């Protein structure tokens, strides 16, 4: 089964050309890759109609990822656009005869939006395949910038879980005249680069690293412990003695605490080995192999084994969970258990922590920064918890 859907668009020809390589390259993409179904759409080069068409396509396929592409004929390689600006300023009329000049796209929107694609990783992967790619800091002020801006505005205001961005492609070398200084790229290589970009984005989404542009913190839900109970039973049956213990950790394990609607589970093991990996993946979980350690609080053990972990995403179709597999007796295995028990015993601290998370989620400009800011706050609570543990003789 395909877990993710990606919508990839190209543009129709414009400016007296008979074709547009962005659409030719998109059209040549397969209908699916690994875990991702690809839906393709050809957009009109029109300030008025391009976004309406994109919105229709989004409503029809409800994608996890949207990558729009267009032609930048003065460039020699693939450009991953970093930013879209809130302005239309057309050098030539579009295919509808419209030529906006110095025109704000949306007065209620900010001046610019950053792309939410993993830009640097895409560049790395495309260049590793021997193809030219760079990050571009201007998508221009024509229809491509327009569509990118409106896509990112849609994501930010209405679809925070959708990942989206824009890629400019160069003219294919097949169509370049011999007197041009541009090296050009074969059309097949343009398609190959897009494929790599899509794969990189879908890996990023599947790994759980991508958290959407907004973090949603909701009031405590009394059904969380029950959901944990059902899921942990399946894990217990699948893992048998390999799991020394399975615990409900994180904010959903603290009654009364506001949290993301994601249940954190800790599986304690004596070794991170193939038997554990096979048992968990046999249950349909997928390992995010780029997540290999926890944040290390200041002053704590510098031994990397104390912070090592494996991280798994829930099987497709199951409610969202974060499953952390940690080594018995290690600092990172003790940390969430003590943190949880301390908050359970100190409701005022839990309330203050919930408030901090809500305000942080509402005010943070970029959701990937959320853990960076939250982690030190959690450490502050943890240090108080250690003091409490030694005073009370707490044992996990
Ligand atoms: N390139 C134009 C619009 C359509 C396209 O393929 C641009 O860069 O704005």
| Name given to the CATH homologous superfamily of the largest domain | Peptidase C15, pyroglutamyl peptidase I-like
The total beta strand count reads 16
The helix content, as a percent range, equals 25-40%
Q: State the secondary-structure class.
A: alpha/beta
CATH architecture of the largest domain, please? 3-Layer(aba) Sandwich
Main sheet summary: 7 strands, mixed
Q: What top-tier CATH class of the largest domain fits best?
A: Alpha Beta
How many domains in all? 2
Give the uncertain stretches in residue-range form: none
Radius of gyration from the alpha-carbon trace, in angstroms: 24 Å
CATH topology of the largest domain: Aminopeptidase
Strand content: 15-25%
């Amino acid at each position: 089964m395909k877990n993710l859907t990606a919508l990839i668009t190209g543009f129709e020809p414009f400016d007296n050309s008979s074709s547009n390589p962005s659409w030719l390259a998109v059209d040549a993409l397969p209908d699916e890759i690994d875990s991702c179904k690809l839906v393709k759409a050809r957009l009109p080069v029109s300030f008025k109609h391009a976004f309406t068409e994109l919105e229709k396509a989004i409503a029809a396929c409800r994608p996890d990822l949207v990558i729009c592409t267009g032609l930048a004929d003065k460039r020699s390689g693939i450009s991953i656009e970093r930013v879209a600006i809130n302005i239309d300023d057309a050098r030539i009329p579009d295919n509808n005869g419209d030529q906006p000049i110095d025109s704000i796209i949306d007065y209620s929107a900010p001046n610019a939006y950053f792309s939410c694609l993993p830009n640097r990783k895409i560049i790395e992967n495309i260049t590793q395949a021997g193809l030219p790619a760079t990050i571009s800091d201007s998508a221009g002020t024509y229809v491509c910038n327009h569509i990118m801006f409106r896509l990112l505005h849609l994501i930010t205001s209405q679809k925070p879980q959708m990942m989206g961005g824009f890629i400019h492609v160069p003219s294919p070398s097949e169509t370049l005249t011999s007197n041009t200084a541009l090296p050009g790229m074969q059309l097949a290589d343009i398609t190959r680069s897009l494929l790599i970009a899509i794969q990189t984005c879908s890996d990023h989404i599947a790994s759980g690293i991508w958290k959407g542009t907004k973090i949603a913190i909701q009031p405590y839900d009394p059904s969380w412990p029950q959901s944990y109970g059902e899921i942990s039973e399946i894990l217990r049956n699948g893992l048998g003695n390999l799991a020394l213990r399975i615990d409900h950790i994180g904010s959903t394990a603290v009654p009364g605490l506001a949290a993301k609607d994601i249940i954190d589970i800790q599986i304690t093991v004596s070794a991170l080995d193939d038997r554990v990996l096979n048992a968990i993946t046999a249950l349909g979980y997928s390992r995010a192999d780029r997540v290999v350690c926890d944040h290390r609080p200041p002053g704590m053990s510098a031994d990397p084994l104390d912070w090592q972990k494996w991280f798994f995403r829930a099987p497709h179709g199951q409610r969202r969970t974060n499953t952390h597999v940690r080594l018995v007796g290690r600092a990172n295995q003790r940390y969430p258990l003590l943190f949880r028990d301390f908050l359970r015993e100190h409701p005022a601290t839990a309330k203050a922590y919930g408030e901090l998370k809500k305000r942080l989620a509402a005010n943070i400009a970029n959701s990937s920064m959320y853990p960076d800011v939250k982690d030190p706050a959690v450490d502050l609570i943890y240090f108080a918890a250690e003091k409490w543990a030694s005073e009370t003789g707490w044992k996990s």
